[in-house]
Specification:
By secondary structure, the chain is an all-alpha fold. The protein is built from two helices and no strands. The radius of gyration is 26 Å and the shape is flat. The protein starts with 6 loop residues before the first helix and ends with a helix.
Length: 99
């Protein structure tokens, strides 16, 4: 029996894996802010600046990858819609050809 057909197994999977992973991600997002708050009197050093620069580079790469994915999906659906329209028009022409 698959987990998607058994609601009890799905709820166990949800609590154990999905909720646990989401809590871990939220903790990883909040951890740098907590550490920075604990050491708020310490001046920034080369490691801090390097990690900040690395974050900006990764953010730029993420934005570029998202933009490329968006362009790909937009073009894919444009071609699919054009193909559907061509099929419908050709079927319409076939139907009305004999009337």
């Amino acid at each position: 029996m698959d987990a998607d057909k058994n609601p009890i197994r799905w709820h166990i999977f949800n609590v154990v894996f999905i909720c646990g992973y989401q809590h871990f991600l939220l903790w990883m997002i909040a951890a740098p802010a907590h550490i920075a708050f604990k050491h708020r009197g310490t001046p920034m050093n080369a490691i801090d600046w390097s990690l900040g620069f690395l974050f900006l580079v990764l953010l730029f790469l993420e934005a570029r990858a998202d933009n490329e994915q968006y362009n790909f999906q937009t073009e894919k659906y444009r071609k699919v819609c054009n193909a559907c329209y061509i099929i419908l028009v050709s079927q319409k022409d076939l139907l009305f050809r004999y009337i």
